Amino acid sequence: MKRIGARRAAVLRSLVCAVASAGLVLTGPSVAHATPSQSSIEAQIDKQWNQLEPVIEEYNDVHGKLLKNQAQLNILNKQIGPLELQVDVALTQVRGMAVDAYMQGAPNAFGAMIMSGSPTGLTEKLTYLDQLSRHQQDQIAGVARLRDKYTGMKSDLDTLTQSIAARDSELGQQKNAIQKKIDALQRLRIQAYGASGGDDGNYRLGPCPATYTPDKGGRAAQKACSLIGKPYVFGSDGPGSYDCSGLTKVAWASVGVTLDHYTKDQYGETTPISRDELQPGDLVFFFPPTLHHVGIYVGGGFVVHAPHTGDHVRMAVMDKVGPIAGFRRPG
Hints:
single chain; alpha+beta; endopeptidase fold (from Nostoc punctiforme); 2 domains; two-stranded antiparallel ribbon; 61% helix; elongated
């Protein structure tokens, strides 16, 4: 009951804000307004969302690169650690030899001759000591060079990662502002469609996929169809929610094909095809030149896509989603 009460209170607050967002005037107990039509609200949603989604996709891109760099740094740290240990052990051994030489005196010609019994033995002993010293120095130098190489790589990667982390942090700080805009969009939806926010909408427009194909594309399309009804959450790739590139990433991952969680990367990772070549599983990119939205073709002129916040994964007529930027085939 508490949850229902909280939800109702949230809806009431949203309606108040939605009224303000729509440009209505509150003057004391009376309200002067003109109720906006559903089509005008949808137009506002589309306009605002098309400004928001590129920012969200950039965040996906930057955050993905940050995670990859951090993983690479962890690998380098694991490689550098043992090398540093080898150098430290070797240097400790050298320092031990130096202490022994200081305490006991370095081997000299007379002592070596007594120990060896002949000048020939002296030469062999000194040669052996020299070779031993050179060998140890070469070992230390080789390990140190490898350590320094990895340390240099780590330093370069550190610099790059710090730059990416700064951008990631900057985008992260924009999340509150982005979320406020997203909330405003949702309030417009509530105003247009009621408190249900479209939860009971018809997300499936027919058989999905329209035709069955047993190849990878067909199975990827089937996976996307199985996710119809899941809520949109930006930056999400499942299992409970998805954004547009998260949906296509997971659909193709189900058949062993890896795609990055970023629309422009997915565009670059896939092969261009013509409209006439479209098959279930192919990706359809929208809104040139930003390419900030993608859906997966399921046949019959339909795509499955994750439209925007407040909506759900759904089927849609491909030509009604938005301006088409191109068709691409993964795998």
